[in-house]
Sequence to fold (683 residues):
Amino acid sequence: MNRKSNLRLGLLVCILIISFVLAGCSRKPSHEFIRIGEIDPLTGKLARHGLEIHEGILLAIEETNLKGGIKGKNVELVTRDDQSLPEVAYGLVQELVQKEKVVAITGGYVDTLVAVISEAARKSEVPYVAAASLQEELTKTKNPYFFRISKLSGFLKPVERFLVEVIKPRKVGILYASTPGSTEFATKLVEFLKIKNIQVPFQEKFRTGISDFTPLIIKMTRYDLDFIISGGFLPDHLLLIRQLKQNNYPLKGYLGPWGIAYPSFVSQMKKDAELLCSTCAWNPGITLPGTEEVSREFVENFEKRFNKTPSTTNMHGYTAAMVIIDALKRTNLDNNNLKNDLRNAISATDLILPMEHVAFDQNGDPLNYEHVIIQIQNGRFVCVYPPERATGKLVYPITD
Amino acid sequence: MYLKLLISGLALGSFYAIIALGFSMIFGVTRVFNLAHGELLLAGGYVAYVACERFGLGFWPSVPISVLALILLGVILYRVFRAIKEPLELNTIVFTFGLVIALQNLFLIFFSADYRILTTPEWSTTIEIFNVSFTRGHLSMFLTAFISVSALYFVLRHTFWGKALRATIQDREAVGLLGIDVEKNSILAFLGGIALVGLAGPFFASFHYIHPTGGIEATLIAIIVTIVAGVGHVRAVIWAGWGMGLLENLVTTTLGAAFREGVTSLVLIAILLYKPCGLADNQ
Fold:
């Protein structure tokens, strides 16, 4: 290659670099908008739940903008797909903070993804409000930028009380998925049941997405179990329940804390979903006392926007986004240290929403996140525990 | 209890065998390493789902519909694969990887990210044969696999076309020199393999569940069973499928579900160390 060619090549590289830099500048956010970042699994294994959280967040942002935005500024949502892969999620935080100049991040489903986003948020010093996270370890790291609107004990405590006060079983079987949250849930539940002298003769860990539960069902038939708790997710329940029926298992009672209280589960399982129990923090018709009107408004707006009934996961997304929006309203938007001020405003949150009265402890854990126990009766979710919120009577055992 | 385990293991293994047979035939004859095999299986499952849930057809009528739909798709795919240049194995890996992403997104657009399951309540009923009770579901799966594999085995062993196909798998150039139409064999093997995927699709939607990204595992199963059996060996594929189904059930029952994949993988690695060209290798 001669000298002239080298010069031309150098010139071309320079032009390209300048073009990229200018392109980057032109993407600089407008001061008319407040940018909130969202990282969710929109494709990959967790896409279904990620999309649900995204819909909830989107609705919260759109509602806010319709009402005039925050202090006259519209909110812009910058959404990124982590493809259900933690290694992808980590890089997206840096992109959202450095390139897209977001003031806070929300979204996230399951702890493997939430954990890496929260760590990256700490490094980038940007507040992150996770929409769905359980593992207790995550908030023990004292990450000042990490907040979440859910926690494991919100599922665990009502299940424990429901078993002891209502079901009163002799023998319980526990199946759980090999995810951090499900494993922690099962371990703590077993410890609790042992203290209460309730036998747990059957405990099995399985990989979520397993294709055949038949050997486990055959194994379960050895024990005369009074109640089965399954810490799997929606697809695991679809398969397990189907195979329990196909194997004519004498099922007395079944509770899956995750994945059952969804309209899509009932529509897929049809009659097989009847009398199964689950937990939920919110559902249309099951809302925090005093928030009935707000809940109804949310359902109406959601149905109008997405042409379907909202689920509890939609509400998780909505709640997480509303926490950031509420905190932004209490923050001086022209402050040079906006992200830090926003962090302080989030930690001082005191907001009543249909799913929970949101307030955080010093670790970023929600103070008031608690589920109720529901049972599917005639295709509808009926709240059966605690008694003060019950909308119907529990049918137990199923086989009677 | 062990008899029940045996039946469910054979039913699971039969399913593995059907999906692996399609992959094995396509790869053996056309050298197309189809990473989108699981997505094609999902396509069959979605076709059956639409036929059953939207048009109210039963499970069995949905099976030929799925097979036909997949054959039609296969005709288009075959034309595309023919346009791919050498090195074929490598280029088809890249192409089918792209096809995986394209199909996943199409499923996402048309069926959303929801999990779908085919409702077949009649499969929970049991039938007693020689004092042993089978669920209709397990029996249907087992018989479908057994009949389709037997038919394929008969064709490959006892017909001229089958023998030509086996010869094509072993040495394409030599077969061409003998005057056998390699191109025609390739089309038939490709469409035959795709038809098997179409046959397995409705079973997948009924025994398992379908969602846009649920094909990867099926592709892996097809690849593993094919490698363990040896490419193009029909009998070995069904033995490998049954072996894998039974082993998984045995491990789950004795050691627990957490050990299922680990122990199965170790056994498969051991088999490949002992027989690197697969179970059917006579050397």
In short: Chain B has one domain: 2-120+133-274. Strands of chain B lie at 126-129, 132-135. Residues 31 and 195 of chain B are 17 Å apart (CA to CA).
